[in-house]
């Protein structure tokens, strides 16, 4: 209560800093395609009063009566300036012209300037600039790009999982147009589900979470799809070694525009003939893989104050493997099919209730479905001779899914230029099927059917929030907020009051100190293999026996522009504690066989501790840009029944993590870019001793004393890319990209395992000795892609 | 599991493998390993081994200079004597008493076991034989202690010919465990009564029914078993956990994506097991 009173007091104090005024409001848009520009600055040059656009490009600026020079600016765009005689409330939209797209590769968010924002631990990634970063297979990937940022690790090579400031991959809230994406992996994790051609903007919060976000402990990845060019029809066609894609967008009328983007992999076309050959009996095995996704969006301008948006995403992965084995007595046919599918739908209504109050009504639907099926047929004579002839057929089907329906109501209130208040509420219905399985066994004259059907389980998550971005003085800016969240399942109700705070103290114009605190709660848990981006993710909600996860995070940092403001420098330290974590105590249990028992198969009540320091240096100039990110971190977990109750390094503990990006634009046609990444080795568990004689066993065993007591070799890799732009005779832009992934062919560990080497002396076997082996996934991989913009 | 196999196949297609020389397999120094299973019919015996480095060559690992002290209900009652590679007590353990071991040897950290007791044994009530398409089986009924989780070890000795004896039998549940039961059945002969949900106490032993002898001339003789000694041991939780731990450790090899379980032990500062058991024998003639 005392906390709420303090917030209200500060808000009232800040309201009193301003006198009576009129309001000008409107949108700041890209003049080329009509896209809203987020965090653009609208400033009165006379009074220095300013405001920033919200995430829909809307601004509201309070001004005294009289003449004003209003300037609107955004990084990478030509500023627009107007003279305005303010006599009453009025509307004014700004359409800014894009001047360059290669000035900055990755930039910290700019609220006026990096050091000026009260928000910290936020990384904003312009999608256009993402495309110049060389990646595996030449396909731009937003998730991979974010792993270059300090404080963000990938789950490993060939994985789209993120680990942010010591969190697990389940602790990231991934939003695509406000709808949750549960599994961001295509191609078993080698590619994310986000098609960069369909995206407008992405931002990642690592800490200092504003109260408007919640539901996960470690990060918020907020991705916006393009809204469709409102001014002209345009398209893009791309060819790469993994997939091809097509994007179309344009106006339907002066009030409506659309976006459609689709991409699909090639593998299935190449393997189609293998399948046919298998069916004819010419070959004994084949594998097929199809990946595709579709993004679509349309918007309709109902009037000057109201806009409607409808966006849709679906993506699917299908794999099919068949194998035939023949011997003198048997013929065996086996196959496995794997399918997983994400769907999101968002309906959004933006409405200006007044010049100072902007409203946003959102309905979302998200679904993730995973399906595994296998068949095995055996014909012939059984080896034990009990049957002269037989037919055995076994089929197995498994399905798990999670979906949610969500209603969000959000308001942006600009009472004056010193306050930007956001408030609203969310209601989400989570429904999930931990797993339905059915199997059929046919042997000679007998058929056994086993069905394990579990109905939908689910719960309701709700939250209300209020936050205020307050300019207390020229030097002090704070964001104060709180979020009251809750979750109801059966007879159990959980509530969490989540205070949020972030602040900035400006020491000089370009030098600030920042601090933040946030308390987060998470009502979903992820069951699944912890180590790789397998698609058998099984999302479940908190239950009566498994409480929601919670986390406290403190962060402090400084931001400064140095070397004549050519280089942005920031350093942040963070400390995070996590409670009520779950994990598997031993081998991944067979959740698929008994999903209804998942609560008994996990260790509950775990705690986590993560702390570290992140350094980010970024150089900007017209042709040469670069950034350097470095993280020093510790990341531990403690469970009562894991590692004998002792604290151990979490699987994603990385002591050092370094990323260096350099890019140079020779001229309008040619540019090059390079990345070098270095990460300390992943913790692994190795034996500490050997026991030669074991009762009941005829062999020696290895003894394991501590979890994660050793580390894999360090990971490092250099990627290089060359881009060439050329205008075709018809005036279209063709972009050729040639890249080298892992240019010096480093054999990085994908995983390591313990093998046993037999030792001989004079031809006599004397010992079996453990030896560590590693698997490397990718050596040097050249790739080429071509995109045509028309 | 299917998916892990699938992924492994995929990785095999793209990946390469090499031996790593940069990772040292950590060795925390030699420790004592205590192995002792005690029952109420025999003098308590303990074997004391030492650990060696994971990559060390085999050597004689029995420790013969240890001092092993047996505690009964918190009182030291015996210092065991080393003979025939074992430390032997003059005490025969009693039911309903608590036992603990402490052992020390030069060059090793001293070790201490948890306090253990001998569980109350369950009795075999009936054994019958039946035959189905997969062979000869013994159906064993026994008294299941109600309202507690008990652990068992089942085996049989089969007799054929005049004086020949063979240990035989693969344990199977008579039916699949009830849904939701965390039923564990390790190495075909150890299980807990959770498997039965206190509704059934039947277990089958696949015994084959005959001894197959392959002669040098290529012929095969089938000699039927004429008698079985069925042995049902009621084992302590530590007995069960020790072997379950070893099984889990073995199973985890080859699954690179799973966490390796730590070695289970009830010996503080060392390894091994100190556990009690009792058993019932049932002679059955088909």
E-strand count of chain B: 21
Strand content of chain B: 35-45%
Distance linking N and C termini of chain B: 41 Å
The CATH class label of the largest domain in chain A is Mainly Beta
Helix coverage percent of residues of chain B?
A: 10-25%
Q: Could you name the CATH homologous superfamily of the largest domain in chain A?
A: TonB-dependent receptor, beta-barrel domain
Shape of chain B: globular
The major sheet of chain A is characterized as:
22 strands, antiparallel, barrel
Structural class of chain B: mainly beta
How many helices of chain B? The count is: 2
User: What quaternary form is this?
Assistant: heterodimer
Q: What is the structure about, briefly put?
A:
The complex is a heterodimer of chains A (790) and B (286). Chain A has 790 residues and is mostly beta strands.
In words, what does this structure look like?
The complex is a heterodimer of chains A (790) and B (286). By secondary structure, chain A is mainly β. Chain A has two domains: 2-98, Carboxypeptidase-like, regulatory domain (Immunoglobulin-like, Sandwich); 107-789, TonB-dependent receptor, beta-barrel domain (Maltoporin, Chain A, Beta Barrel), CATH 2.40.170.20. Chain A contains five helices and 51 strands. In chain A, the strands form ten sheets. Chain A has a 22-stranded antiparallel barrel. Chain A has a six-stranded mixed beta sheet with strand order 10-11-18-19-14-15. In chain A, strands 1, 4, 6, 8 and 9 form a five-stranded mixed beta sheet that branches. In chain A, strand 28 and strand 29 (446-452) form a beta hairpin. The model of chain A is unreliable at 101-112, 383-388 and 530-535 (pLDDT under 50). Chain B has 286 residues and is mainly β. Among the domains of chain B are: 32-118, Immunoglobulin-like (Sandwich), CATH 2.60.40; 124-236. Helix content of chain B is 10%, strand content 44%. Chain B is built from two helices and 21 strands. Chain B has helices at residues 2-14, 237-252, and strands at residues 16-19, 32-38, 45-50, 67-72, 75-79, 81-83, 86-88, 99-104, 111-113, 124-132, 135-142, 151-160, 164-168, 170-173, 185-186, 190-192, 202-206, 210-214, 220-235, 267-268, 271-284. In chain B, strands 2, 3, 6, 7, 12, 13, 15, 16, 18, 19 and 21 form an eleven-stranded mixed beta sheet that branches. In chain B, strand 18 (210-214) and strand 19 (220-235) form a beta hairpin. Mean pLDDT of chain B is 80; it is low at 1-14 and 175-181.
């Amino acid at each position: 209560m005392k906390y709420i009173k303090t917030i209200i007091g500060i808000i009232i104090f800040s309201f009193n800093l301003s006198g009576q005024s009129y309001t000008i409001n409107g949108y700041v848009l890209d003049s080329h395609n009509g896209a809203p520009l987020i965090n653009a600055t609208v400033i009165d040059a006379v009074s220095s009063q300013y405001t920033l656009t919200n995430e829909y490009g809307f601004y509201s600026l309070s001004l005294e009566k009289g003449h004003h020079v209003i300037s609107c600016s955004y990084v990478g765009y030509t500023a627009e300036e107007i003279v305005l005689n303010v006599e009453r409330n009025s509307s004014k939209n700004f359409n800014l012209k894009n001047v360059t797209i290669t000035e900055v590769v990755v930039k910290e968010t700019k609220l006026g300037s990096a050091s000026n924002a009260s928000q910290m631990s936020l990384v904003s990634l312009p999608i256009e600039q993402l495309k110049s970063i060389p990646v595996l297979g030449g396909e731009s990937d937003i998730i991979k790009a974010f792993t270059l940022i300090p404080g963000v690790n990938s789950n490993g090579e060939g994985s789209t999982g993120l680990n942010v400031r010591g969190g697990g991959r389940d602790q990231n809230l991934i939003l695509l147009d406000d709808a949750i994406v549960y599994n961001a992996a295509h191609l078993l994790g080698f590619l994310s589900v986000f098609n960069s051609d369909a995206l407008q903007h992405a931002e990642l919060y690592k800490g200092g979470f504003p109260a408007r976000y919640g539901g996960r402990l470690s990060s918020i990845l907020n991705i916006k799809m393009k809204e469709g060019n409102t001014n002209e029809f345009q398209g893009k066609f791309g060819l790469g070694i993994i997939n091809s894609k097509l994007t179309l967008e344009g106006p339907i009328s002066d009030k409506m525009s659309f976006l459609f983007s689709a991409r699909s992999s090639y593998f299935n076309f190449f393997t189609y003939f293998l399948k046919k050959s298998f069916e004819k009996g010419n070959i004994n095995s084949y594998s097929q893989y199809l990946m595709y996704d579709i993004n679509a969006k349309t918007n309709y301008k109902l009037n000057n104050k109201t806009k409607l948006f409808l966006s849709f995403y679906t993506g699917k992965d299908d794999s099919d493997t068949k194998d035939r084995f023949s011997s003198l007595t048997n013929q065996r046919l086996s196959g496995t099919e794997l399918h997983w599918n994400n769907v999101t739908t968002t309906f959004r209504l933006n409405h200006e209730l007044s010049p100072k109050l902007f409203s946003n009504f959102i309905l979302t639907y998200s679904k993730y479905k995973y399906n595994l099926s296998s068949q095995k047929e055996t014909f012939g004579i059984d080896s034990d001779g009990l049957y002269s002839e037989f037919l055995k057929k076994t089929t197995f089907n498994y399905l798990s899914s999670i979906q949610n329906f969500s209603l969000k109501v959000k308001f942006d209130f600009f009472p004056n230029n010193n306050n930007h208040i956001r408030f609203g509420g969310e209601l989400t219905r989570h429904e999930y099927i931990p797993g339905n399985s059915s199997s059929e066994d046919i042997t000679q004259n007998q058929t056994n059917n086993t069905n394990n059907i579990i109905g939908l389980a689910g719960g309701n998550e709700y939250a209300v929030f209020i936050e205020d971005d307050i300019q207390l003085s020229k030097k002090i800016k704070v964001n104060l907020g709180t979020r009251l969240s809750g979750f109801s399942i059966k007879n159990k109700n959980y509530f969490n009051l989540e205070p949020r705070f972030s602040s900035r103290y400006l020491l000089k114009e370009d030098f600030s100190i920042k601090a933040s605190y946030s308390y987060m709660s998470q009502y979903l848990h992820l069951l699944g293999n912890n180590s790789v981006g397998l698609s058998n993710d099984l999302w479940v909600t908190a239950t009566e026996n498994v409480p929601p996860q919670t986390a406290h995070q403190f962060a402090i940092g400084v931001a400064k522009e140095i070397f004549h403001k050519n280089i942005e420098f920031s350093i942040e330290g963070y400390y995070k504690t996590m409670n009520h974590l779950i994990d598997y105590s031993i081998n991944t249990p067979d959740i698929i066989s008994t999903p209804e028992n998942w609560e008994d198969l996990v260790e509950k009540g775990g705690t986590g501790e993560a702390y570290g320091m992140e350094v980010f240096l970024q150089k900007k100039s017209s042709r040469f840009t670069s950034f350097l990110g470095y993280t020093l971190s510790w990341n531990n977990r403690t469970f009562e029944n894991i590692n004998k109750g002792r604290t151990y390094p979490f699987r994603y503990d990385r002591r050092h993590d370094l990323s260096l990006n350099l890019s140079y634009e020779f001229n309008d046609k040619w540019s090059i870019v390079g990345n070098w990444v270095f990460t300390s080795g992943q913790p692994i568990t190795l034996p500490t001793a050997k026991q030669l004689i074991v009762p009941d066993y005829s062999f020696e065993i290895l003894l394991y004393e501590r979890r994660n007591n050793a580390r894999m070799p360090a990971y490092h890799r250099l990627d290089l890319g060359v881009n060439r732009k050329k205008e075709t005779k018809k005036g279209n832009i063709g972009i050729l990209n040639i890249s080298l992934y892992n240019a010096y062919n480093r054999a990085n560990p994908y995983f390591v395992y313990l093998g046993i080497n037999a030792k001989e002396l004079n031809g006599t076997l004397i010992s079996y000795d453990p030896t560590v082996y590693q698997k490397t996934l990718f050596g040097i991989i050249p790739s080429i892609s071509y995109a045509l913009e028309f | 599991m299917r998916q892990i196999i699938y992924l492994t196949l995929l990785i095999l297609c793209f990946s390469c493998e090499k031996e790593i020389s940069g990772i040292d397999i950590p060795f925390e120094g030699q420790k004592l390993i205590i192995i002792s299973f005690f029952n109420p019919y025999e003098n308590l015996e303990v074997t004391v081994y030492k650990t060696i480095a994971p990559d060390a060559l085999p050597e004689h690992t029995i420790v013969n200079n240890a001092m092993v002290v047996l505690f009964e209900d918190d009182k030291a009652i015996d210092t065991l004597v080393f003979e025939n590679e074992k430390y032997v007590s003059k005490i025969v353990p009693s039911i309903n008493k608590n036992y603990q071991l402490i052992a020390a040897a030069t060059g090793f950290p001293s070790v201490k076991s948890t306090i253990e007791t001998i569980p109350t044994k369950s009795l075999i009530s009936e054994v019958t034989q039946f035959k189905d398409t997969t062979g000869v089986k013994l159906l064993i009924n026994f008294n299941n202690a109600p309202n507690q989780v008990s652990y068992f070890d089942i085996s049989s000795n089969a007799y054929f010919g005049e004086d020949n004896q063979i240990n035989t039998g693969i344990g199977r549940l008579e039916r699949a465990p009830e849904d939701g039961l965390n039923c564990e059945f390790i190495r075909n002969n150890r299980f807990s009564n959770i498997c039965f949900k206190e509704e059934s106490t039947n277990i089958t032993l696949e015994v084959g029914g005959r001894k197959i002898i392959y002669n040098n001339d290529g012929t095969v003789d089938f000699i039927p078993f004429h008698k079985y000694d069925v042995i049902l041991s009621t084992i302590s939780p530590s007995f069960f956990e020790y072997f379950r731990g070893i099984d889990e450790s073995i199973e985890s090899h080859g699954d690179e994506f799973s966490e390796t379980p730590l070695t289970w032990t009830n010996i503080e500062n060392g390894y091994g097991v100190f556990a009690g058991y009792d058993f019932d024998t049932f002679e059955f003639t088909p």
